[in-house]
Amino acid sequence: MRFLQFLSLAILAVVGAVQVGAQTDPLNQVHVQPRSGSTAPQPSEPAGAEAPPVTGKAALNVRPGSFIRLNTDLVLVPVTVTDPMNRLVTGLEQEDFQVFENNDRQKISSFATEDAPVSIGIIFDLSGSMTSKLVRAKESILQFIKTANPEDEFFVIGFNDRPELIEDFTSSVEDIQARLATVHSGHRTALLDAIYYGIAKMRQARHQRKALLVVSDGGDNRSRFTEGEVRAKVRESDVQIYAMGIFDPYAPTPEERMGPELLNSLCEDSGGRMYQVEDIDELSDIAEKISTDLRNQYVIGYRPRDLARDGKWRKLRVKVTPPPGLPPLTVYARTGYYAPLQ
Question: What is the 3-state secondary structure (H, E, C) of 174-199?
């Protein structure tokens, strides 16, 4: 019976692919029917070797991607899953996932899918090249906020020659809208400085889940921080980076031509995603997709077998095995973390 359920879902997914222009699901999601009474197989360990598992909302009350001292150390990894049509896949269960640290499979200790609130920093490009795109970019930011969890909090950093805090942490759409109405574009692009500032600003966040939304049209040509310094900052943090890249296909400078690669790599390192904007009129739709991504993540926790506190980089890989009848799925998760020193 369970196999038939998944087979039916697979057939529906194929039909949906043919009728993509007519689909009515506003969230553009694929939901996997839960398997009643199923339990996740786990490798055996000696009795008394582990603390009770953390499940549900309790699993979201510690910092994703970081070591937190509970009864033992716990690493949490936010994960997004999509199908071949780039639609979100919800309804997967713990047994569908595997986590590897430095190629060593780990035992999953916690698994949660709740829509927990997020602290979000919006990094808004106000350089001169954004002038013709400014109105639509503002609209997309407001659409993103309106479709977020009502308990989310936001700050806005605008940047051209240097980053500047436009609006501090707030949950008020009206406050952000009023502040965005006052900004203007001009000058050059200090993108890396703005991302660095945004990650540092997250130290003041109320929520344990944290993300940056970067809205930009090109590469960096003004920052004091280097790409290596910002990449290290991203890896040290527990902040996911999402981006709406409004790139010029005929970019005149090397920095602008490297912009897509730079943003995409920073997003991938953090476990986020970059959306390349082909049509400026699609900005608000893409903003809503990113908001939906953040509201439909799996949070997987494990206690590392290697408990050495050596400060070394540990590579992470999350693998999903689709239930029978489903096509191959794509996983977005951070690529690693630094072990603690104490």
Answer: HHHHHHHCCCCCCCCCCHHHHHHHHH
